[in-house]
């Protein structure tokens, strides 16, 4: 099962005029009975939600106050994710004539047309607060607190991954958490800007639209969306100047090549890119070659076998990817170890959807063609695996039956594909020339595609560290960007690109244009981020006098998302 949770907005999505109908409740019950979790993500205060939605206990988790409050109905677990609103801000808003003011545990909310007063009060108080819109509602929260940050907190508590969540909403403040989800939907009554960015727009409105998504989950786990989810595919290489990618879900990969052919380069790069996009990977490492993977936890050594119990425990909770070093296990005992591990990991996948991929290096060590006694315990079809081996004959034919895509590396790549086709019982791809120099032959035969030559995309730990540092790290006070505005009444610090995009969404047009016209953004990209290409593209936006504030803001955030934050942040621009 790919999607283990549905994250839904409340007003305008699950609810119609504040109420949830009986048919919608029945659909939510069916969702729960399927083993999936229901996460409600709402801008409402929790106490108010409980009044208008008496059946709130049907939810496994509730994110209230637009990401500021976390609540679990089953045991009344309650966790604030933001501090209470400053009394000085409340007093100033009232002094500015904002009488219709809702004060939550962390959120301040009012209604249009008081957004100008809200922005002015935040500026006067010099607070690191952002303004978030939800149709006619205007909300103020600390910078970085939104529905996406709240959903992230839920996923961490529940041991789930964003790659196993489908989200649905209807309004401006739903952009953030929908972009975080593996698949996103909008009900038919949603605003146009949201419909343009989601993977699915339902035919029905409000709760009936949510029911459509639930029916799709129960029917085929929303398999119909797979062709649209190209942003999640993982790079393997390039063919004729175009990127070649594979699906991380539902496509089993086999990499074949002799020692020194480049298969390890391809496999390592593939694992790095999976991890960089937030997929949790379990790497079976018979020869101790993957110990340097950044952010992966290595279990086992030459002296000690890795613990299966510890591995399973890690994948039942939020944490890093795992590398299992098998050097300490005798060669003859490795197949039994792997089959026991595989059986246990299948259980964790039912519970958490993880690990998303099991990568088996030197697969002939654990799935050898000659080790027949183990095969009754092997699943009929392996799922979400990538196998690396010397030759197709070295692993069991039963395992080959699970493969969808094969990559042959080295000067005998064409003959390797022919032999694989013979063992797999499928027509040969008919390749007459070998792989390109330093490249490979890729054959996605299950998709009915011909074999092609590709240049291998190597991994780059240094580049990935660079991306993470500038996207999510702390650059320090002297290299941060500060939104101050034309009168220098603001002092909003963005210590990384992710926070920059969040603050950029909330500042008023005068502040945004002030920095735009001074070329402050491109200068920061060049001097603070050290990205000349980003600076040049940002300068083009700054120099276009035809762009209004909203469009220049959208394009600038799009540049950042494309280069840095689309895989890990809440702001990819489609």
3D structure, described in words:
With 574 residues, the protein is α/β, with parallel strands linked by helices. The protein has 19 helices and 25 strands. The chain has an 11-stranded mixed β-sheet. An 8-stranded mixed β-sheet has the order 5-4-3-2-1-10-11-12, sandwiched between helices. Strand 4 and strand 5 form a beta hairpin. The longest helix is centred in the middle third of the chain and has 19 residues, at 334-352. Mean pLDDT is 89; it is low at 567-574.
Which short descriptors sum up this protein?
574 residues; alpha/beta; eleven-stranded mixed beta sheet; eight-stranded mixed beta sheet; 19 helices; 35% helix; globular
Briefly summarize what is shown:
The chain has 574 residues and is of the alpha/beta class. It contains 19 helices and 25 strands.
| N-to-C span | 26 Å
Beta-strand content bin: 15-25%
Low-confidence stretches: 567-574
Strand order of the largest sheet: 14-13-23-22-21-15-20-19-16-18-17
Biggest pleated sheet: 11 strands, mixed
**Quick check: average pLDDT?**
89
